[in-house]
Structures are given as structure tokens and as C-alpha cells.
Automatic annotation (TrEMBL):
Organism: Streptomyces gossypii
EC number(s) recorded for this UniProt protein: 2.1.1.228
Designated name of the protein: tRNA (guanine-N(1)-)-methyltransferase
Pfam families given in the database record: tRNA_m1G_MT
Entry function: Specifically methylates guanosine-37 in various tRNAs.
SUPFAM superfamilies for this protein: alpha/beta knot
Catalytic activity of the protein: guanosine(37) in tRNA + S-adenosyl-L-methionine = N(1)-methylguanosine(37) in tRNA + S-adenosyl-L-homocysteine + H(+)
PANTHER family found in the cross-reference section: TRNA (GUANINE-N(1)-)-METHYLTRANSFERASE
Keywords tagged on the record: Cytoplasm, Methyltransferase, S-adenosyl-L-methionine, Transferase, tRNA processing
Tagged with keyword Methyltransferase: yes
NCBIfam families named among the record's database cross-references: PRK00026.1, trmD
Gene Ontology MF, one: tRNA (guanine(37)-N1)-methyltransferase activity
Source species taxonomy: Bacteria, Bacillati, Actinomycetota, Actinomycetes, Kitasatosporales
Length: 273
């Protein structure tokens, strides 16, 4: 996979040289190219922003440098890339979207600063659906100083899904929100050696060697954690995807299938956690 990132702060992307992504780059599994947007400016101050039309606070990134930068990057490769624009007003970045992006051969990230990129840049490239795709993506309902941090998040989420990046090819299959699971549940707690630490013991079932019981315990813990931290995932789930034991655990946690619709609701005896 090829990844191009256009930014006014190339040093911000240095973390891509370490950990899993750095190792994947060193092994040639991903080709990451970071470009300084200012090299496509033509004034002595390397200006990339200007005041917004219509007034208002902040500055807007100019279309000329972005257009030249993206044209140059697009001309340097072959294929149908996806241009990913991090923005709080974009579609949510989910594990499902990460999986879809991991299937693409070429991603181009366009992280903005200030109040964002002149809208005409997005419209210019979005008007070429036959040769590329433009995705505006948000990593959460909050605002950052720029799009570089979201790029780091998305690149790591996508890169770890690529063949050969993780030491164990099966590692990502049990991730929280992994697509293809019967229900979108958070992962339960994990433990390692020693078996006792500061008076706290590892749950006995994990030491039993009984794979069926371990799998059931992990499932029960995932249900409990999801109920506690992300109840909307249970509320939006079809009760038919849960087995008898799942339903018993959910009932103990204060959930029951609603009689008038295919979803769960809280009971009056909901467990306080």
C-alpha cells in the first residue's frame, strides 16, 4: 500500500517511523511519503492561508497550493487513489471504514489547519469519481488544532490490518468493533504473567486450559463492558444475534428484548455498575 500525506508540519508525522508502522515501512509493506505543502507556494513567505470570504474568525487554507500539491502527488503514481480529508464535519471513522481503506492500494491524506481547506479543493477532486474517491472523515466529536493527529490515528488503524504487519495474522479478528462479528462488542479485559500481582489474581477460568469456558468468559466480559461503556451498541443490536447465555448475561445486566421491536431496552432492575 502507498500512503501520501500532504501537510505543513512534516515533523508531526515522525511517529510513523516507529512501532508497527515503522517496522512495516522498513519491511516494504507500506510506502509512506510525507510532503510539505509549502513547497507548492510561490511567494517568499510560503503563504498557505488567507482570510475567509464573508468574514469570521480564523484563516482558511488557500486552494492554489493544495491543488498543485494534490495534482503533483496524483501525477506521481498510478491507480485510483482515495483522498482522505480529516475534518470534524466528516463521516465517522470506524473499524469498518478502516477495513475498507485497508483494501485500497493508495491513500492520500490531506490534513488541514486553521479553519480548513477552501471548499473548492474538495469539490474539484470529488468531481472525478471515475479516477479517485474523496472521503471527509472525523475521528470523533471534538475539534483539534489540525488534521495530522487524525492522520496518525487512521494510518495506524489501517496499517495494522494489512497482511504481514501484525505478528499474528489473527490478532485483529477479535478487535472491538471488528466487522463481521455477530454483534459489535467491546473487547473484554486481558491478563498476562504473573498469575498474582499486588494481591490481585488472574481469573481462574483463564488458567483452566478449558478453551470453551475461556471463550464463554471472554464473551460474558465483552457483554458486560459494552453494557457499561457503550450501551448504545446493545440498544441498537438485533436480539436474535444473541444466544441463550448472552441473553442471560444481558438480563442480569438489566437488558431485555423489547416486545414491539427488534432491539434491547433497559429494564427497571438495571444493574448499577
Amino acid at each position: 500500500m502507498r500512503l501520501d500525506i500532504v501537510t505543513i508540519f512534516p515533523d508531526y508525522l515522525e511517529p510513523l517511523n516507529v512501532s508497527l508502522v515503522g517496522k512495516a515501512r522498513a519491511r516494504g509493506l507500506i510506502d509512506v511519503r510525507v510532503h510539505d505543502l509549502r513547497q507548492w507556494t510561490h511567494d517568499r513567505h510560503h503563504t498557505v492561508d488567507d482570510t475567509p470570504y464573508g468574514g469570521g474568525p480564523g484563516m482558511v487554507m488557500k486552494p492554489d497550493p493544495w491543488g498543485e500539491a494534490l495534482d503533483s502527488v496524483l501525477d506521481s503514481g498510478q491507480g485510483e487513489p482515495v483522498i482522505v480529508v480529516p475534518t470534524p464535519s466528516g463521516r465517522p471513522f470506524t473499524q469498518e471504514l478502516a477495513v475498507r481503506l485497508a483494501e485500497k492500494p493508495w491513500l492520500i491524506f490531506a490534513p488541514a489547519r486553521y479553519e480548513g481547506i477552501d471548499r473548492r479543493v474538495i469539490e474539484e477532486y470529488d468531481a472525478r469519481p471515475d479516477v479517485l474517491e474523496v472521503l471527509e472523515v472525523s475521528i470523533g466529536d471534538y475539534v483539534l488544532a489540525g488534521g495530522e493527529a487524525p492522520v496518525l490515528v487512521m494510518v495506524e488503524a489501517v496499517a495494522r490490518l494489512l497482511p504481514g504487519v501484525l505478528g499474528n495474522a489473527e490478532s485483529h479478528r477479535d478487535d472491538s468493533f471488528a466487522p463481521g462479528a455477530m454483534a459489535q462488542l467491546l473487547e473484554g479485559p486481558v491478563y498476562t504473567k504473573p498469575p498474582e500481582w499486588r494481591g490481585r489474581a488472574v481469573p481462574e477460568v483463564l488458567l483452566s486450559g478449558h478453551h470453551g469456558k475461556v471463550a464463554r468468559w471472554r464473551r460474558d466480559e465483552a457483554l458486560a463492558r459494552t453494557s457499561r461503556h457503550r450501551p448504545e451498541l446493545i440498544e441498537g443490536a438485533d436480539p436474535e444475534i444473541f444466544d441463550k447465555q448472552d441473553r442471560a448475561v444481558l438480563a442480569a445486566l438489566g437488558w431485555e428484548a423489547e416486545p414491539d421491536g427488534p432491539r434491547f431496552g433497559r429494564t427497571s432492575a438495571a444493574v448499577e455498575e
